Amino acid sequence: STGRFTITFGLEKPTYATLFHGREISQMFLFPGDDIYLTLDTKEFDETINYSGTGALQNNYLASKFLIIEKMTDDPREAFKMEEEKFLMFMKKSQHVLMSHLDTFFLEKGEAYYEFVEMEKNRLVYEKATELLMYPSYYRYLKRDMEYEPSEEYYAFIDELDLDNGKMLELEEYRSLIRMYVSEKSRKMIKKDTAFQKKYDNPHSLATMVIILNEFKDEEVKNHLLKEYILEFVNYRGLTRDDTVMAIFYANCNDTIVIKKVEEGIKKWEKIAKGQPAPGFEYPDINGNKVSLDDLKGKYVYIDVWATWCGPCKAEIPHLKELEKEMHGKNIVFVSVSVDDSKEDWEKMV
User: What integer pLDDT is reported at residue 236 of this predicted model?
Assistant: First the structure.
């Protein structure tokens, strides 16, 4: 109400953070012990952000960097619509502009900023590489050209990158890059080997594990990727202990904390494994009557989870109605469960 706010928190090491205001964001660099003052007009946001106090210089640089990126293209998606050669030229030019801005901004500012500048240079390299890896899939989607594949020379930039470096794991840009690199390599592997798809239950998961083990030798990086992917697989796809992917994981991961988390994830899925009793529930319907799974015993139960804010969920509803109509009179009931926080939104939609 006064137009001012204060926030205090502890940090163990220097870190990048993001300040959100609605849909607007600003990246910050925070150092333990810093006392930073920020002023801005929230209606203008990026154009008005200004930092003072201890640690101000790095943050004013980050604010100015964002404005430069913003001026390069009004809509980032437009760059991904460019033809390959033009896109590469655009990326080369933008990288040069940003590197030059970084050097100029910290020129003659002293050795105190050397580590930050080096870190920023690495971030710029990994940011650019990530966008280069993103380009083929974005181009296919935005140009509706599903057959597009980059030229053989396109991926030459990868040979210049240090992809297997545990010291870089503190940078989000590096972590994003190696994830995308693994994803792209596994996609190509599956596309090239059609037999691979038919041979295994989880071909994408398995291809990912193979790529990680073949491409990364640094133990920190390898364990990081194994953790990222296996937890994603276990938490969202419900892999079991005897799955081929899990066998490879157990044979190659030496991080006991990660293994414990994976085991916990597997146990959650065991509760809803085939043959187990379905977990019970009881929710009010639109008329306030309680609907319980126990009331539906003896019937097949089709459960649809949706929300008023979920586009794909709402797109399914007409098809679900058709399915209900088709199955009418048979031994099956359809239950749609909303995960909305707002009862009013839910009631209005129903």
Answer: 79
pLDDT at position 242, please? 66
Amino acid in position 223: N
Axis-axis angle for helices 256-270, 244-252 (nearest 10): 160
Name every residue whose Cβ is closer than 8 Å to that of residue 115 and which is 6 or more positions away in sequence: none
Task: Decide the pairing of beta strands 332-338 and 290-292.
Answer: unpaired
H helix runs in the chain, sequence order: 56-72, 76-80, 84-105, 114-143, 172-192, 194-199, 203-215, 219-237, 244-252, 256-270, 311-326, 343-349
Higher pLDDT, 349 or 197: 349
Burial of residue 150, with CB atoms counted within 10 A of its CB: 0-12 exposed, 13-18 middle, 19 or more buried = middle
Distance, in Å, from the CA atom of 219 to the CA atom of 231, rounded to the nearest integer, reads 18
pLDDT of residue 234: 82
Alpha carbons within 13 angstroms on the beta-carbon side of residue 81 total: 8
Cβ proximity of 308 and 345 under 8 Å? yes
Looking at residue 251, the DSSP 8-state letter turns out to be H
In terms of C-beta density within 10 A (0-12 exposed, 13-18 middle, 19 or more buried), how is residue 344 classed?
A: exposed
Among 5, 53, 58, 9, which Cα is nearest to 32's? 9
CA-wise closest residue to 78 among 100, 94, 102:
94
Residue 50 has pLDDT above 70, yes or no: yes
The least confident of 105-114, 135-144, 229-238, 282-291 is 229-238
Specify whether the CB–CB gap between 65 and 98 falls below 8 A: yes
**For residue 336, what is the enclosing H or E element?**
strand 332-338
Q: Please count the other Cβ atoms lying within 10 Å of the Cβ belonging to residue 142.
A: 12
Give me the pLDDT at residue 126, please. 96
Query: 19 is written with which tokens?
Result: 């300040």
The Cα-based distances of 320 to 303, 307, 337 in angstroms read 11, 15, 13
**What pLDDT sits at residue 253?**
85
200 vs 89, higher pLDDT: 89
How many other β-carbons are positioned within 10 Å of the β-carbon of residue 178? Answer: 25
Q: Which helix (H) or strand (E) holds 36?
A: strand 36-39
